[in-house]
Design a protein that fits this description.
about 240 residues; Purple Acid Phosphatase, chain A, domain 2; six-stranded mixed sheet; about 25% strand
């Protein structure tokens, strides 16, 4: 089966629509979402509505989702994130807040595992190093685990010599994983990429061919920035969209 995989939408409706249009073009009908639907951007309700409306989707919650839903405090968030979370709390509809509250921390399916941060710490841990990959292996049983949170598309796996490899997933990259081994794929960010490419990032996962393909989708960044200015969201968050950092 082929799945559309995405994460870290962060209330960026234009970026989300660009990825969904790609999935439609590719005839994708099943979806995996790694959380942080809201936060940072100007369209939290529209993004929740779009994602909740997808018929075949499995989703995990992210740290921003749970903060907006009131399930966790914001003490460890930076000031820009806190300001956007507080603004989002004032905007979010009750039914969408309920949707965010019900999102699971981890999805343990037969073929794959889903978590926002890591299988060991599904909400908060950023997987950034080979050591963290190694430490997380005992916390999932499937051949592949999808995560988000860092906003940088990458893959961690062990090669034929037993050496842990870490690679960035560039646009149009197809990675074939070993179904007998274990692989962690970071799917990057739809709404706030941080790898120097400002286009929305998403993946197509083929569970039969054991492949993951990266896609970058251009979208109207200026329109999103204008809406953020109108809502007096932090300038830093507005400007970083342009640079993908």
């Amino acid at each position: 089966m082929r799945y559309g995989v995405f994460s870290d939408v962060h209330s960026n409706l234009e970026a989300l629509e660009a990825c969904l249009q790609l999935f439609k073009k590719e005839k994708i009908q099943s979806f995996l979402c790694l959380g942080d639907i809201v936060g940072y951007g100007p369209n939290p309700n529209e993004c929740v509505d779009k994602i909740a409306g997808l018929k075949k989707i499995q989703i995990t919650g992210g740290n921003h989702d749970y903060a907006v839903a009131g399930l966790r405090d914001t003490d460890w968030f930076n000031d820009f994130a806190v300001r956007s979370i507080n603004w989002t709390k004032r905007q979010i509809k009750n039914e969408n807040k309920g949707f965010l509250m019900r999102l699971p921390r981890l999805v343990d399916a037969s073929l794959f595992t889903l978590s926002h941060g890591s299988p060991r710490d599904p909400v908060d841990e950023y997987i950034l190093t080979p050591r963290q990959f190694l430490d997380n292996l005992e916390f999932f049983r499937t051949p592949i685990c999808f995560v988000g949170h860092t906003h940088v598309p990458s893959v961690f796996y062990t090669d034929a010599l037993g050496i842990i490899q870490q690679k960035h997933l560039d646009d149009a990259t197809t990675f074939e994983y070993d179904p007998q081994g274990k692989t962690i794929i970071n799917v990057g960010s739809v709404g706030q990429p941080r790898d120097g490419d400002n286009r929305a990032c998403c993946l197509i996962y083929d569970s039969d061919k054991h492949t993951v393909q990266t896609f970058r989708c251009p979208y109207d960044i200026t329109s999103v920035q204008n809406k953020m200015r109108q809502n007096q969201l932090p300038l830093f968050l507005i400007e970083r969209l342009e640079y993908g950092r």
